Amino acid sequence: MTKLIVCNWKMNLGGADATDFLPALNFKSHYNTARLVICPPYTTLALVHDFIKHQNLRCQLGAQDCSAAAKGAYTGDISAGMLKQLGCGYVILGHSERRLHHAESNRLVKEKATQALAQGLTPIICIGESEADYKAGKTIAILENQLKGSVPNGNVIIAYEPIWAIGTGKTPTLEEIDAVHKNIASILEKMGHNDTPILYGGSVNPDNLNQVLPLPHVGGVLIGGASIKPESMNAILQEVAL
Ligand code: PGA
Fold it and tell me: Atom 9 (ligand 1): residue with closest C-alpha?
């Protein structure tokens, strides 16, 4: 199965930094086991789009959020249609940093995902439990609630990102990751979503990538910190090209 490698630059690599960063990456002419998606901040989308096009790279473009509205008086917001026009194929929605810092509810995430689908973008909907919920054994219940609340009908991708694993260097065990993904798949099936790719995110790096990626229920990875440093990103590109 081809697996998806989604790079979430977060609020890093604006114009000039991205201009330095992109040529330092050793993109491959083909990836045996993976498809690559880069999600830069809004202001770098056009730059990355042009780079991919001119270098003829096997890589797709995604954004990190979009508005729930199609257009209108929403100062500061960016619509899914605008992202589509910029060449995006994907949009990350409901990342825990947005749920936390922008108080995004499941309902809002679902509205955004519905809007993204209407504009022809594939939403990558993030779900994940806190460390307290993980320790209390509530992971599946939390994820089920997030899935039921934030996933609309249509073809979506789910990213399972334990909040306590993001940017911390801590990860669940491989057995835990695969078991949680299996549970997510069965919840999704009951909701009428079959064969939904389920990505794992949270402290993925070149060292653990080749352990996480082959897990049977893992459809790919969402990578933050390791995707914005040339050394680790090049190691990741090398690994998925093998
Ligand atoms: P990380 O971030 O790889 O730096 O843990 C992942 C994410 O937040 O998407």
Answer: 224
